Amino acid sequence: MHSHVESLQTATTLPLADLSLTGHRFNGLSVIISVMEISIADERWANGQGELQEPGAPSHRAITRVEERLRHNCKEERMLKTLCALIVALVATADEMKDYGIPNWSCDAELMKRSKTFPKSVHSLRPADIDVIAALGDSLTAANGAGAVVNDAVAVLIQYRGLAFGIGGDKSLDEHVTLTNVLRKFNPNLFGYSTGTGSANVWKTAKLNAAIPGAQTDDLVGQAYDLIRRMKDHPEVDYDNSWKLVHIFIGGNDICNWCDHPDVESETKFRDNIGAAVQILKDNMPKTIVVLVGMLDLSLLRSIDKGKYFCDALHTFECPCEREMNFSDEAIREQCKKYMATEQELQDGRFDTTEDFTLVIQPFFEDLNVPPLLPDGEPDLSFFAPDCFHFSAYGHAVVAKTLWNNIMQPVGAKDKTANLTDLSQPLACPDKDCPFIRTTKNSDNCAQYMTPAAN
């Protein structure tokens, strides 16, 4: 007999008896369901014709019936609303996962080439010269929930690293935009990108994606050392001679803890933590360009989950600061802006003292103050994973396009407001007059770094 509880486990992809939500653990959800007096354990999944469905393939009618029953019991038993909302969502019907790709994209053939001679300066680095890609960060770089279907909140626990906007290598650019998939158009032999699902310690899938869900900036030093070890331990990386791009995106968890510890989680600590990690890379990792994505304003979460109880409830676990009403939207926004401002100080030249290393900040989130929107002005929840916090596959793809376009823009003239709603802007090609990844120095005077492309 294939019980409802068994089917529910199959549908959610994780054991119901072992569910973790960012530090909060609920053991034995099957017992909780029993407490709710939902007598479904011995019922069969019927397809409406009196026939038994195949295991793991419950019918639409069956799922709807159980969902209605769950809602009824939640109301009648007056259980904790948050928990009921979670369980109801686990058996709600799911829509097709939305994604975004750019088919048949290419640039002028000359711009797609590697340099004629091996670049001696990081400021003369063409996209095709990048041989290795890597990443540091938190759950957004681990891509938690990116491949989750609508309403499957449990799948937010899964790290879909192959879909991550910076380092994901699942699919192709035709189907899913990531920084990796763009760079592979220039260099099909790019190494280090993540594929599939799994944690950071699973080399087969994570590769050089060292991001850890829940990480704060004070975890970056450890990640930096881990990344160095990974590169040195794997012969696929020519550590001393390959040009590397390291993508960093972090800060959400720092802000999420700021409400509880405003004196500790200061903007100077935020800056210094990132700076310390980048300095470790500079001291130990030759031929590297660090691409640091600027801080995201987390006050946007409040506009996203307004009137959406399920998202609002999940944010209680994921980011308590977002639910702390003693801190206004403006207070959270102001603190995020302080983080952004101090982060910019890292681009003051301290990492430009040698020709084989630099840091470039991509500030496209800096002035973003509205979430992606639907035509009716409501937040576009397809941009987000089921928790309305992490990015969906579609969200990662849209962010990746914006990131690439920012990388192609000169320092001092980079867009600071990402338009996550309008996708009409094309994916940028390198500037013919400065066909390099833009840095502080080649943005100031590209002519002195100009080198020819390969024949």
At a glance:
With 455 residues, this protein is α/β, with parallel strands linked by helices. The protein is built from 16 helices and 6 strands.
Count helical runs: 16
What proportion strand? 5-15%
What is the end-to-end distance? Answer: 67 Å
Strand order of the largest sheet: 3-4-5-6
The number of distinct β-strands equals: 6
Quaternary organisation: single chain
The shape, in one word, is globular
What is the helical fraction, as a range of percent? 25-40%
- The radius of gyration computed from the alpha-carbon positions, rounded to a whole number of angstroms, is 23 Å
Structural class label: alpha/beta
For the biggest sheet, the summary is: 4 strands, parallel
The helix/strand order is HEEHHHEHHHHEHHEHHHHEHH
Average pLDDT across residues? Answer: 82
Low-confidence stretches: 1-67, 73-80, 86-95
Notes on the structure:
- The protein is an alpha/beta fold and 455 residues long.
- It has helices at residues 4-12, 29-35, 60-77, 81-90, 139-142, 179-186, 203-206, 220-233, 252-258, 267-284, 300-305, 309-318, 320-323, 329-344, 393-408, 440-444, and strands spanning 18-21, 24-27, 130-137, 243-249, 288-293, 357-362.
- The longest helix is centred in the first third of the chain and has 18 residues, at 60-77.
- Residues 1-67, 73-80 and 86-95 have low confidence and may be disordered.
